[in-house]
Amino acid sequence: MNKKKIAFAAAAAALALGATGGSIAFADPAGSPQYRQLSGVGSDTTQDVMNGLAAAITVNGQKVIGSYDATGSANITTKDPAANPNCTLARPNGSGAGRSALLTSLQANNGCLDFARSSSLNLAAAAPGLTYVPFAVDGVSYAITPGSAIPRKLSLTDLKAIYHCDPNYVGAGPNYDMTVYLPQAGSGTRSFWESQMGITDADVVAGVYPCIKDKKGSAPVQEHDGRVLDDKSIVPFSIAQYQSQSSQTIADLRGRAILGTVDGLAPTVLNSGFGVKRDVYNVIPTGKVATAPWSTVFVGANSEICKQAAVINTYGFATNPNCGDTTKQTP
Known about the structure:
- This is PBP domain-containing protein.
- This protein is of the alpha/beta class.
- It folds into two domains: 3-136 and 280-319, D-Maltodextrin-Binding Protein, domain 2 (3-Layer(aba) Sandwich); 138-262, D-Maltodextrin-Binding Protein, domain 2 (3-Layer(aba) Sandwich).
- It is 26% helix and 21% strand.
- It has helices spanning 3-20, 47-56, 95-108, 156-163, 188-197, 201-206, 239-246, 294-298, 309-314; strands at residues 38-42, 58-59, 62-63, 65-67, 75-77, 88-90, 115-118, 130-144, 153-154, 179-181, 212-213, 215-216, 219-220, 233-238, 258-259, 261-262, 277-285, 318-319.
- Strands 1, 4, 7, 8, 10, 11, 14, 15, 17 and 18 form a ten-stranded mixed sheet that branches. Strands 2-3 form a two-stranded antiparallel sheet. It has a two-stranded antiparallel sheet with strand order 5-6.
- Strand 12 and strand 13 form a beta hairpin.
- The radius of gyration is 19 Å and the shape is globular.
- The N and C termini lie far apart (41 Å).
């Protein structure tokens, strides 16, 4: 990272911390009001930056975003039970689960969920229709431990061979004797990484790639939790998550994990130049694109979220030149 980027990252962090009054790590909606106009669930990758944005953004003096973490208590309550007694639901973990929960709420017309967080794009048909609104850019690298024999520098071609269980890489000797992990089912990072590796989730589930595991013992591999790693394992890891854990902006779950270099490009805080990168999204009902508060908070370059570049950078994400775009809609 050059000096200008380091200076920019530091300035962004200072601005965001000042705007939100110090530490900005939260779990589920923090502060008043307890229940918000816009309740959302889903992606582990973007839960923390959305919590930071929820703290920073107000409309008419009121916080309006209620973002519920991917993990925590078994159930969450998203709306005031006095007004809506049916909004206690199982906590959705991951982009896919968040999308499903949002659709369930919209189909029931119960008002319990208003958006979903997603770290991957899924334009499969949905009823009612959904719009994927980008707001930041993340990079994804691989994580290993400092004691691992797995190289700290790999090409994308090498990674594809590893995730195809190529015997010349996996189990062929001490340099490549490894456990190959993917995050839990429904994870946006899982689906994104599969797309980059040229594999499908259906084939992974069917056991076409026998070296790939998404559990350690009986426990699902939670994305961006480096504690799953030992000296013979590898797992994809969000660069934004890694950097914000490293800076103590959010809870540090890295364990001994370190990030690898891909195709000669090292993972950095402002990672829009990294080779393996993705847009991250908030998913809203297409029918609400022009309706406040969805339009005020999510839609367009001047939306409340898109104006919060300092907060977005503090959580390790790069700003997105297409922030607020509404062209990515499900049929």
